[in-house]
Amino acid sequence: MKTKMLMIAALALLAFAAPATAATETAKPAAAARPKPVETKFEDWSMQCMQSSKGKYCGLYQKAFATVNGKKVMAVLAEVEMGKGKDGKKTPHLRLITPLGTWLPSNLGFKLDDEKQNVVPFWVCGRSGCMTELTLEAEHVSRLKKGKKLLIAYRTSPKKEDQLEPTLSLKGFAPALDALMKNG
Fold first, then answer.
1. CA–CA separation, 156 and 102 (whole Å)
2. CATH superfamily to which 2-183 belongs
3. Exposed/middle/buried for residue 130 (C-beta within 10 Å: 0-12, 13-18, 19+)
4. Mean pLDDT of 95-99
5. Among candidates 171, 169, 119, 166, which has minimal Cα distance to 149?
6. Following DSSP, what letter does each residue of 57-110 receive, concatenated?
7. Residue 38 to residue 48: CA distance in whole angstroms
8. Element of type H or E holding 144
9. What is the C-alpha end-to-end distance of the chain, expressed in Å?
10. CB 135 within 8 A of CB 127
11. CA-to-CA distance for 175 and 134, rounded, in angstroms?
12. Of 32, 37, 42, 128, which cross-links 172 as Cys (Cβ 3.0–4.6 Å)?
């Protein structure tokens, strides 16, 4: 599990810092090169798979942006990976990562299409941002596969006007999740 978390963190860092990573990798000698993830696009979702000595790891991701002070910034990174559910079987988990500077007492709100908003607390902040994770039981998976968008809400300060509401598209989510379940 610890290895899996390290691989997830590595993928998150790749997603948040792709231009910087590309610049440093060109300066490294070829002998020190790490395996590159293989990426497959599913409309608005991407699946990255990496092979390591511990086996193959695959995860889904999507970045959502917001406009802050007139600038387009990445506001949330969504990742889906396979993990254990309550019953011990492989179950998808949705991790939502917001940038550092998130006002944690506001928690993270999420709303599927026109459904009622749900709120979950952040559980950790690290170098790649502040995270929360949701276990996607069968009913959640079914609703997400049929959905159009997932609205995320959080604040960068106690002020209501500092709330960001990036939207994750669910276009391509169903085939992406099916592929992850086969590969993960």
1. 5
2. Invasion associated locus B (IalB) protein (2.60.40.1880)
3. buried
4. 96
5. 169
6. EEEEEEEEEEEETTEEEEEEEEEEEEEE-TTSSEEEEEEEEE-TT--GGG-EEE
7. 5
8. helix 138-146
9. 14
10. no
11. 20
12. 42
> Which helix (H) or strand (E) segment is 21 a member of?
helix 18-27
Q: What percent of the chain is predicted at pLDDT more than 70?
A: 82
pTM comes to: 0.79
Taking the CA atoms of 167, 170, 172 and 176 in sequence, report the sign of the dihedral they define: positive
Q: Which residues of 38-68 are buried (b: 16+ CB within 10 A; e: fewer)?
A: eebebebbbbbbbeeeeeebbbbbbbbebee
Q: Strand, coil or helix: what is 165?
A: coil
Tell me: the pLDDT tens digits for 103-144? 999 999 999 999 999 999 999 999 999 999 999 999 999 999
How far is the C-alpha of 78 from the C-alpha of 62, rounded, in Å? 5
Question: Beta partners for 155?
Answer: 163
User: Does residue 45 have a pLDDT over 70?
Assistant: yes
The C-alpha atoms of residue 130 and residue 33 are separated, in whole angstroms, by 29
Domain ranges of the chain: 2-183
